[in-house]
Amino acid sequence: MSSKGLLGGVILGGVLIVGTVGAFMCSEKVPAGYVGIVYNMNGGIDGEVLTQGWHLVAPTKKVTTYSIGIEQSYLTSEDKGDSPADESFSTPTSDGKSLKVDLEFSYKFDQDKIANTFVMFKGQAGKSIKDTFIKPKMRAWTQEVTAKYPVTDVFGDKRQELNEALDVYLKQKFEPYGIIIDTVNFTNISTDSETSAAIQKKVTAQQELELANIEAKTAKVQADKDKQVALIAAEQEKEKAAIVAEQKKIQAKGDAEAMRIKAEAEADANAKVAASLTSELIEKQKIEKWSGNVPTVQGSATPIIDMTK
């Protein structure tokens, strides 16, 4: 190989090496679930939003990434997730009490507003925005919500309502910044021992009242049931008495009718007998009834025979 050919090969190899190194140095990887904003150091945002994968970016440009996938975050007293220290915080109630709360939430950056978010936060990366803006605002805006509820509601039947109100409020507050709040929940709420004792006392009294109301309602239901049973029994007795009276009426009517028929039959028989009695028959019956003894009259020895008897 000539010296000229050798020199050409060396130059070519050098170019390839420099090109490879340059390409590597100019390559930027956007992780899965993230998008990237390219900032031109000469000023302003350059080009479109980068999606996940490898991209060639000039050395004079910088890529800032933001998560468009759901990120979980914590503000808790225990070491959990991105909350290694005690990040629980105090928040007020409408009646002047103080609560200590643990909060967990999930969020992501709005891909359609990511360029505006980049400008709004002066090129801060997503993690930096979370630590310097999202978490502090979570505390501040949570305090605005709890301040509308008395402590007894927070520990009573309005707990779910409070959580729902917080969810709606935070979504509205973060939305203009291109930050989407997916979920937010109180994982623990506590207060001082004196307030806790007062709340427990109220809860106990409320439970006793509810029990008394339940017992009163139960007694009323039973009384209404007994009354209904008594009314039904009385109505049944009334109907039974009416049936018996009707039966007696029918029986009396039947007896009267029977007596009438019997009387009519006897009268008819008597009438027929009377119609059949002639003078000869009457005389015959008299003779048949005569015992043969002649009636006597005192003071006279001569018997008087009365043939009419």
Describe what you observe in this structure.
By secondary structure, this protein is α+β, with helices and mostly antiparallel strands. It has helices at 3-25, 114-120, 126-146, 151-154, 159-174, 193-276, 279-289, and strands at residues 27-30, 34-40, 53-56, 61-67, 71-75, 89-92, 98-109, 179-190. The protein has three domains: 17-67; 69-191, Tetrahydropterin Synthase, Chain A, CATH 3.30.479.30; 208-267. Helix 3 crosses helix 5 (159-174). The termini are far apart.
Number of domains: 3
Task: Assign the CATH architecture of the largest domain.
Answer: 2-Layer Sandwich
Quaternary state, please?
A: single chain
Largest sheet entry:
4 strands, antiparallel
Identify low-pLDDT runs.
Answer: 18-24
Strand percentage: 15-25%
Order of helices and strands: HEEEEEEEHHHHEHH
Distance between the termini: 196 Å
Q: What is the name of the CATH superfamily of the largest domain?
A: Band 7 domain
CATH topology of the largest domain: Tetrahydropterin Synthase, Chain A
Number of strands: 8
Structural class designation: alpha+beta
Number of helices: 7
Mean pLDDT metric: 81
Rg from alpha-carbon coordinates = 59 Å
Which of globular, elongated, flat, extended, rod-shaped describes the shape? rod-shaped
